[in-house]
Design goal:
By secondary structure, the chain is α/β, with parallel strands linked by helices. It has nine helices and eleven strands.
Length: 272
């Protein structure tokens, strides 16, 4: 995988949720009576990004990507989950055909709204340096002239290794930071952007998180965007990443899912 081009501009901070179709959000996040076909239109005007989960389970139609592009504001961005057929396999080096089918399925119809691809590994997948590097080599840096950003979400403790962090940095692939969860936390910056998924919303908090917890995540987001290492997160690399500004993508997922949109909106308001 060759390097994607570097861009000299101010970093973007994008905050959102996983998916937009969830029945318990109706009448809580979505206004009562809002037609289901308008839920993405509504959500995309309250949030700055959404992670599409359906692409993990199967191919979507090109017309769907085109419609999602047209229903959202100009500055909105989608992150996509890469297909499980590429990551839930014994040998990642054999994922080439699945990756090619994914990018041929119509994802480029999102145009400038195509954000990072999250390649989520199953919790049982252990770190095999040679096999993992073979997988990273399969990830295209660009397609049809459009730069593609990649993130890897690993969930086995064997990835808490400086060698894994060094490998991700070599290929400029982001390591997904797992926040407020039981998954291993690897908060090392390894790409020109940060990808975080926070999973600690609670039924006891009106906005999913306490005000103190929301403020802590805002400070981390701002630190990442400024090229700094945030406080309170676990990194494992031997050397810190260069202190350069980075785009930040943060998604509120899992936890008490009913409150995830409220938490995301509270973070957006605080970031300002």
């Amino acid at each position: 995988m060759t390097e994607a081009p570097r861009h000299s501009r101010s970093p973007h901070i994008r905050i959102g949720i996983g998916g937009w179709t969830y029945e318990p959000w109706r009448g809580v996040f979505y206004p009562t009576g809002l037609p289901q076909r308008r839920e993405l239109e509504y959500a995309s005007r309250k949030l700055s990004s959404i992670e599409i989960n359906g692409t993990y389970y199967g191919s979507q139609k090109p017309d769907s990507f085109a419609r999602w592009h047209d229903e959202t504001p100009d500055d909105f961005v989608f992150a996509l989950k890469g297909p499980r057929f590429a990551t839930a396999r014994r040998e990642l080096a054999g994922a080439g055909a699945s990756i090619e089918r994914f990018f041929a399925s119509g994802v480029l119809m999102l145009k400038d709204k195509l954000g990072p691809i999250n390649w989520q590994m199953p919790p049982s997948k252990r770190f095999d340096p040679d096999d993992f590097e073979a997988f990273l080599k399969l990830l295209p840096a660009s397609i049809e002239g459009r730069a593609i950003r990649h993130a890897v979400e690993v969930r086995h403790d064997s990835f808490r290794s400086p060698d894994f962090v060094a490998l991700a940095r070599r290929y400029r692939v982001a390591i997904v930071t797992a926040g407020d969860s039981s998954y291993p936390q690897i908060a090392d910056a390894s790409a020109p952007f940060i990808y975080a998924r926070i999973m600690g919303t609670s039924e006891s908090q009106e906005q999913g998180y306490s005000a103190q917890a929301l403020d802590a995540w805002v400070e981390r987001v701002r630190a990442w965007a400024a090229g700094q290492a945030p406080a309170g997160l676990e990194a494992v690399g031997r050397e810190p990443a260069p202190g350069v500004p980075r785009d930040v993508f943060l998604y509120v997922i899992s936890g008490f899912k009913v409150s995830n949109p409220a938490a995301a909106m509270a973070l957006i308001e605080r970031v300002g």
